[in-house]
Amino acid sequence: MIGIFGGTFDPIHYGHLRSALEVKHIFGLTEVRLIPSYQPPHRDKPHGSVGNRLHMLRLAIEGQNGFKIDTREIDRQGVSFMVDTLASLRQEFPSQSLLLFIGGDAFNKLTTWHQWQRLFDLSHVVVMTRPGSPIGQLDDYLVAKQVSDRQELSQNLVGKLYFQPITQLAISATAIRTMFAEQFSPRFLLPDAVIAYIRQHKLYETL
Ligand code: ATP
Q1: Domain edges within the chain
Q2: 2-170 sits in which CATH class?
């Protein structure tokens, strides 16, 4: 099974890294693909350039077994729709289960994503929830996809929705960018090597 973790990673932080590591272990994934978006739908252009965001990802995952950076959204350019990314992964890995991981915040907006129902024709969707916090009312289409047995993800290639509680660190890239702009140290929220890179290249000096 291959895990897919998309994001802007502007910058990558321990909230992303810790959850990617936990799901890799919980689901016994052969790899987790971190996929930086080129132009995320529904949001402004990222602050960090593609080159800087990629470089920070490389620094952050150095030495971590099973984490891979996948540049297909950057290579494709244009608006980074997840459905296109999954279609291309499905072609590359026709016989593997794909698990698309999304945070609870992103899941709440899933039904606004481009061709969102098609996501389930291409992969499973695993929502990383905060332990103890309930999920809101689900769309009927989603109710029909939901499974409560993790085994169903390995037994099927696509089409299931699963909720997985994980440790959630209250860290956001937005808050980190603000700290840099206000010259308040973000240490211990993201890897030191990434902090050093941001300082060296004077990223996020203004909001
Ligand atoms: P921003 O503050 O710029 O919106 P972000 O920190 O939310 O950024 P993204 O790159 O937009 O990061 O998020 C990518 C994915 O990581 C999404 O699925 C999101 O739900 C998840 N995510 C973000 N922050 C955390 C966190 N602290 N813990 C677990 N998952 C997270």
Answers
A1: 2-170
A2: alpha beta
